[in-house]
Amino acid sequence: MQSEVMSFYNLKRTFDYVGYFETEYQTQLFKELKILIRSGRLIAISGIVGCGKTTTLQRLQSELATEKEIIISRSFVVDREKVNSNTLMTALFSDLTTDKDHKLPSQPEQRERKLASLIQKSRKPVALFVDEAHDLSPKTLVGLKKLIEMARFNNGTLSVVLAGHPKLKNDLRRPSLEEIGARTDVFSLEGIKGQQKQYIHWLLSQCIEEPHVSEDLIEDEAVEILAAKLVTPLQIEHYLGLAFEEAYKIGQKPVTVGIIEAVLTAGINDLEPRLIRQGYNTKVLANLLNIRTAEVRSFLQGQLPTSRTQDLREQLLKSGIPL
């Protein structure tokens, strides 16, 4: 957002990276996660794109760091498709090692023994956090399970917290991944579902300069439309920023319903964007349905015969994908 726009609307900061909007559900979720982490578990948190998974993980890690009862480890690899058991073990070693530990052995057996020893010596539960975990391969998930068991057998406690799109949750429920899914505690992150209006007013209150209030900047009816059509913090921050920029061009204050309707993208809740928020792009859908990407595109664009469209929809529903 341009500085001129912010000045015109008395905003002291942009809408992104504002802070943590805590809901009752998230408060309870943190309590349950802390209990599980202390016991050495494989945990998965799933949520649609933009619902606040990364922010939630950061808040949880911050609380754990303050409490000082659990050692935190993180994976920083940017290319998530290249993350495997080796990179995650390296992350653990990097966060647990001391100067006298030198480096992680390259030989598999020695490497695992070294990590088990470090976890045991820490004398505290260790939690490894992995974001964008929907890209992890089944082989990597199996490796994480074995790593947790290895730590337990060596009198240590290791938990792994995975966060990813709903695709992660659906993958863990597949019969072919029963070895992992049956041993994983899965949570769905609801984000601000049902509290979109409250979130918008909270967001504005964090960004507006005193003594101004949100009603000075945007009509309540406009807020109602945003709350009805948008479902995630990311969407709200994006379209609210666009609305202020468009309103500034014509010197409109407060932002009106007409401006909101003008900036909301047509088809924002069509099938394709809804599936992408779940973690299912064209390539992933083609692999899941075992069809060509061209047919997937035709399906998403409503160009297939009715019977074929119904068949593909039923397959997606059986896979746990809400349509």
Automatic annotation (TrEMBL):
Gene3D superfamilies the record matches: P-loop containing nucleotide triphosphate hydrolases
Pfam families: AAA_22
Annotated keywords: Plasmid
Matching InterPro entries: AAA+_ATPase, AAA_22, ExeA_AAA_ATPase_DNA-bind, P-loop_NTPase
CDD domains in UniProt: AAA
Domain AAA+ ATPase: 39-186
Domain of life from the UniProt record: Bacteria
Single GO term (MF): ATP hydrolysis activity
PANTHER family reported in the protein's UniProt record: GENERAL SECRETION PATHWAY PROTEIN A-RELATED, PHOSPHORIBULOKINASE _ URIDINE KINASE FAMILY
Name the record gives this protein: AAA+ ATPase domain-containing protein
